[in-house]
Amino acid sequence: MSLRLLRPARAGIAIALCALPACALWVHLDAVLAWLDARDIVLVEPRALWLAALVPVVWVGRVFAFTDLPRAQQWLQAALRTALILLVVGAVSRPERRESKARHAHTVYVVDVSESVPDGLLQEAQRSLDEAWRLRGDNGVSLVTFADKASRIDAPAPPEGEPDAVRPAPRVGRHGAGAGLESDLESALALGLSLLPADAVPRVVIASDGKETRGQARSLIELAKGQGVRFDIVSPERFATAPELVLRGIDLPSSLKVNVPFETVARIFSSVPGSVGCTLDVDGKASEKVSVDVGAGESRIPLTRTRFKDGGVHALSARCEAESGADRFATNNAIALRVFVPDKPRVLYVEGERGQERYLARALDDDFHVELRGAAGIPHTIEDLKRYAAVVISDVPRVAASGKALMSLGQMKLLDEYARQGGGLLFAGGENSFGPGGYQDTYIEREVLPVRLGTDQKTEAPTLALVLCIDRSGSMTGKKIELAKEAARAAAGMLNPDDKIAVIAFDSQATMLVPPTRAGNRFRIASDIGRLTAGGGTHIYPALDAAHKTLTGIEAKVKHVILLTDGQAQRAGIDDLVRRMARSLITVTTVGVGTEIDRPMLQDIAEAGGGRVYFTDRPETLPRLFMQETSQVARRSMVERDFRPLVNPPYARLELLKGVDLKAAPALLGYTSTKPKAGAEVILASPEGEPVLARWRRGVGKVAVWTSDIKNKWAHFWINWTGYPVLMRQLVRDLLKDERSRTVEPSLALERGRLRLSVDAVGEDDRYLSGIHASAVLRSPDGQERSVALAERVAGHYEAVVPLAGWGAYEARVELRGKPGDEPFARGVATAVAPYPDELALTSGPDVALLEVLRMETHGRRDPTPQDLHDVGQARVTSYVPAWPPLVWLALALVALDVALRRVRFGRAAELPWA
User: Fold this and answer.
1) Dist CA 507 CA 568 (whole Å)
2) Is the dihedral of CA 191, 192, 197, 198 positive or negative?
3) How far is CA 36 from CA 22, 32, 92, 454, 880, in A?
4) Per-domain residue ranges for the chain?
5) Residue of 233, 186, 194 lying closest to 214 (CA atoms)
6) Which CATH number does the domain 104-240+845-874 belong to among 1.20.1250.20, 3.40.50.410, 3.30.428.10, 3.30.2310.20?
7) What CA–CA distance (Å, rounded) separates 762 from 394?
């Protein structure tokens, strides 16, 4: 075989022979690693063994090497380089030698020296520490004490001349005045864990009552378990605490109001039974001491009832002291706080009769800012109405004697809108309002009031004079005129026999068809009406003028005109005439039939005349309309006699009746007869069951009706009764407007050394307001003020967190603006109190639950003995020593030898491969 064919065959055989050991190594890699592990050798990077695949390359290179070195020297070089690669691979895999030896223990005592820890627990911790120190031998013992901060306590120096072996144990002691007012167990345990040597069996002994005021010790459980640390505890419940009295808090009503008395309750905790004396201080004025006997545990002590005469922020403080027995701390016996009392609500009072407003105004003055207006003072804009929390309208007729409208349809709708948006409305009756005041069948009666005006009351009716002015122009010929006559007869039939009726027919001039006649003469009236015929033009003024003159000469309590027309007429003089009629207390109602009528003129006549207006294009409805209008006017609505209102039983416990003895009330002298609507609450009623006080919801507000009056007429005896101002104040307060659109209710909460101030910004449409500017002025207990900006956390919710600046009462005045520099559109006040450090709130025993969690999660023990702490059992320390440095040094030596073999020829030169 030629040399050219023999050399590749030799190379292939060489590669195969070199690859076989490498393949065998990878097939049995786990066995190799196990063999090394059995000999306490561990490879940190076993993946580096793949680099051994470079060994075949060396031998392939040897076959095709272009050198004349002796064959033996070439084989030696290949073997040397193979060894070099294996040494490098072994070094890169980072072998380590495992060593094991017996372990010692190290115990860290973590001792709570805060004020809440009883002396007995500290003494027990010192005793256990001294014993463990004395028996420590090769074991270690350290001490960490903590309150607001954790400190490592070193052992004192041994006595002079004594060996270090008799060095005394570290001493447990409190950290000094003021330093024990916090407990941070988490930081103490973290310091203790850092003191444990890596080669020792770790032990931590916790001597604490488990009460944390800072940190979260539970967060270190996983760290301790990872280090194999065992948390042992000294049982704190075995040690009694000194007698202690703690004032936990002051309970006040959720909402305070000006001039409304309220009760303050002190919540105390006493560890032992005894006598306790408490005093209350309001705006610097102290009350009488309240002394009570209390048992062990929590108690509630009612203090003196008081009230605030003005709105704003008020200072309030309480102090409770033990009158018998000892008390460890005096700091936790007092609480000072600041409370915000909303200012007096604004109430608009519109009185229809001049000189009569002083009675209700005097009754409301203590609780409300009352603004008085006359009969023409009903607001014309919703903005004006929104300035008031409630509106009282008393005995205001719809039209004044001058003919001027005192409450237009627009104002009625504004009052309705005001109520729907949360306002409170009170309508009080009288001689000029609900009866002959012209509100029947108006928007106020139909939509706003909880009652219908007028009933079928069977008492004696006031005298009525009614004039019917009927158009008999040519356009009324035929069916219209006949139906008009029928309507006139029907109206006459609705009247009482003693009432008077007159009928005036008009075309271009007026004709007295039926002169003023008693309604009892029905045959004559019907006969005269039958003479009505149609023909001529239409001129309304003469007819109204004749009606005015006719009614002026008649003595009647109610004077009313019904004007019927189907066409248009000249307006000249009519407006002035209707106003003169109104000044004479003559009301006018208009009825338009057909499509050719002058609607605006008829509406204006009815508006100025204090009557109603009817339009119809169906003549057959005329009789019904006349009967309806006559019924409204002739209705006997005012009941003028003595009576006492009765409480409807379902509403006897309402807050607005609290403290009002209606059985002792004097008699009212009259009221307006009404009927309740569906959904109305009739709180007070007449002996006949008719409403005297009724209310209902209108939107988110309330509307109430008082059908008697509130002044020196029907309520003549009531205005001097002691229950009158109480009832009126509580009635108005029951209706108060919801003030949320102008104020906000911020929250100031105490959170472990911090104050969290938050507020929700809500618009009038109940939507959260995003992107606004929220700021506050925070007042500290020492009187210092600082500005705080609130950041928006979520849409419409704004927050700020500030550190405590001392113990006592805090006050935050919050303002909301559209953007910086704008006027605030909403304000609010919040208060909070941090009376004393949580460490002094000694209202319960130790928090054993926390200590048990720490112990059980780490498999610790209760009350371990020194022998338990120092006993390590079979525990040994395992360490790993690097074994790769010798491989590196040997590889370096082989590199030097390989260089020598390449530079020096040992023996005769070999023939080059190509030769």
Assistant:
1) 11
2) negative
3) 17, 6, 16, 111, 14
4) 3-98+884-903, 104-240+845-874, 245-341, 346-457+660-739, 464-635, 743-838
5) 186
6) 3.40.50.410
7) 35
Q: What would the CATH number be for the domain defined by 346-457+660-739?
A: 3.40.50.880
Residue with tokens 């009392």: 341
Per-residue pLDDT tens digits for 395-427: 888 766 454 678 889 999 999 999 998 899 999
Look at the domain 464-635 and name its fold: Rossmann fold (3.40.50)
Separation of alpha carbons 779 and 758, rounded Å: 15
pLDDT per residue as tens digits for the range 231-289: 999 998 888 777 878 888 888 887 787 777 888 898 888 888 889 999 999 888 888 88
pLDDT band at 103 (very low <50, low <70, confident <90, very high): confident
Residue with tokens 């223990």: 105
Amino acid identity, residue 352?
G
| AA letter at 401 | A
Note the Cα 81 to chain centre separation in Å: 81
Cα 539 to chain centroid, rounded: 67
Phi-psi domain of 325 (left: phi exceeds 0; alpha: psi -120 through 50; beta: other) = left
- 155-161, long-range: CB < 8 A, 24+ apart: none
User: Residue for token digits 């600046």?
Assistant: 805
Classify residue 438 as left (phi > 0), alpha (psi -120 to 50) or beta.
left
Measure the CA–CA gap between 386 and 422, rounded to whole angstroms.
Answer: 9
CATH topology of domain 743-838: Immunoglobulin-like (2.60.40)
- Does the pLDDT value for residue 377 go beyond 70? yes
Alpha-helical (H) ranges within 615-690 are 622-634
d(CA 587, CA 398): 11
CB 251 within 8 A of CB 303: no
DSSP-derived 3-state class of residue 26: helix
- CATH architecture of the domain 245-341 equals Sandwich (2.60)
Determine the straight-line distance between the first and last CA of the chain, rounded to whole angstroms. Answer: 16
**CB of 380 closer than 8 Å to CB of 410:** yes
DSSP 444: I
252 in helix, strand or coil?
coil
Closest Cα to residue 349, out of 383, 390, 384, 381? 390
Tracing tokens 């030696």 back to the chain, one arrives at: 76
Q: Residue 476, by phi and psi: left (phi above 0), alpha (psi -120 to 50) or beta?
A: alpha
Residues 6+ apart with CB under 8 A from 489: 525, 526, 529
Fold match between domain 245-341 and domain 464-635: no
Q: Alpha-carbon distance 145 to 205, whole Å?
A: 12
